[in-house]
Amino acid sequence: MNILFYCQGDDGQVLQSFRQRLPQHRFIDWNSERPLAEPELITAAIVWMPPEDFFDQLVGLKQIHAFSAGVDHLLQHPGLPEDVTIIRLQDAGMAQQMAEYALYGTLHSQRQMGQLRKSQRRRHWQREVKASATAVTQVGILGAGALGLHVASRLSLNGYPVHCWSRSARQSPDDRIRMFHGQDALSEFLAGCQVLVCLLPLTDATRGILNQQLFEGLPQGAFLINPGRGNHLVENDLLSALETGQLSGALLDVFSTEPLPENHPFWDHPDILITPHVAAQSLEDESVNQIVDDIEAIDRGDAPSCVVCRQSGY
Ligand code: NAP
Ligand code: GLV
Question: In sequence order, which residues have a C-beta less than 8 Å from that of residue 226 and are 6 or more positions away?
Answer without folding.
Answer: 197, 198, 210, 232, 233, 250, 251, 252, 253, 254
